[in-house]
Amino acid sequence: MLLPVMVATSIISCDNDDAITYSVNDVSSRVTGFSSPKTGPGAELTITGSHLDDVQRIFMGNSIITKANFVSHTESAITFNVPTSVTPNEENEKTRLLVVFGGSARATKEIEVVPFQAISSFTPFSAAEGETVTLLGVNLDLVTGVKVGTADATVISQTPTVLKFSMPAGAETSKIMLASEAGISASRSDLISCSADPSGMGCKQGLNQNTGFEDGAGDDFTGWAKQNGGQFMFATTVPGEVFGGNRAIKVARDGTLSSGEWRLQLHTNFVDTEIGASYTVTLWARATVAGAGIRLSLSPDTGLYTATAPVTTEWQLFTFEVPGERIQNAQTKFSLDMNANNTVATTFFIDDFKVTKN
Fold first, then answer.
1. Where does residue 133 rank: exposed (0-12), middle (13-18), buried (19+ CB within 10 A)?
2. In the chain, which ranges are continuous DSSP H helix?
3. Lowest mean pLDDT among 43-52, 244-253, 277-286, 325-334
4. 164, HSE (Cβ side, Cα atoms, 13 Å)
5. Overall pTM > 0.85
6. The dihedral of CA 191, 144, 113, 31: what is its sign?
7. Are 327 and 276 contacting, i.e. CB atoms less than 8 angstroms apart?
8. What residues contact 54, with CB distance under 8 A and at least 6 apart?
9. In this structure, are residues 308 and 351 in contact, taking their beta carbons and an 8 Å threshold?
10. CA-CA distances (angstroms) from residue 112 to 90, 109, 192, 288?
11. Above 90 in pLDDT, residue 196?
12. Where are the beta strands (DSSP E) in 167-204?
């Protein structure tokens, strides 16, 4: 029982590093191939072969993929996501993979690493057949094919940072899949198919005019009125500032308005409403920094003032419920009050404002 301890101690205390040697068993023949001859940072990659259930970790260049981070792991295949720290190769170069098995067994292979496409966001979140969907991301000019689930989509235009495609016929609600020579990437959330689910909240037709703020000249919006603080409201067509379509409202507040959420107010033209019926208002919004807040009110005033909802830096769906007792007129204006936290200077964006009857 004492001998192993004495041996270990002698190795640790040795001053001559050259005295420590390791015997490596080359088992490179166990790795027979990859799911793709090329891959990219962030792409999903599969290694195929035999005895792979004994693999403990994989080194890809200077990056490590531990067993705990494998997507799947069987005797014949290991699937993992290529670390984003892996750098694409220069021309005629490849990246070395070191596959570490239990004990002294090691396997080495090489693979070409190229730039890989990734989706950061897309708009709108719901679309019917033929509608244009816009993707924002990186390396989108490398994309060779787009699918919504299993349905092939037609690409309308693409640049390194923006790709537009037409919602394909027969598409179900599913993730957007992008193919390139480096592999397939997917959106983090599903694109809702209005053809498959026309009653979905994002697919309902709004009762108000110009729901997406697409119509209007300059900084004016057809069917809408800037009731208060109009000098802080502008039209924007900048990708990332628009949720759906080509145009949205940009609110650039400098913090000089007095308190009162109504001091920055946008409302619809009159909407025909049924007295005593309930309604739902939905809209999408995001801010450049925290500090913005929005609520819903009505005109004529019937006492509805919803709780103020904070606007985050990511596009978010906001839903406001209007109970039947607050609808007391045959025509109602639905107002968005946007001066919460009035002393905070912030910029935020509003798009796809819909009034629907429950």
1. buried
2. 2-12
3. 244-253
4. 9
5. no
6. positive
7. yes
8. 101, 102, 105
9. no
10. 9, 11, 35, 38
11. no
12. 176-180, 183-186, 192-193
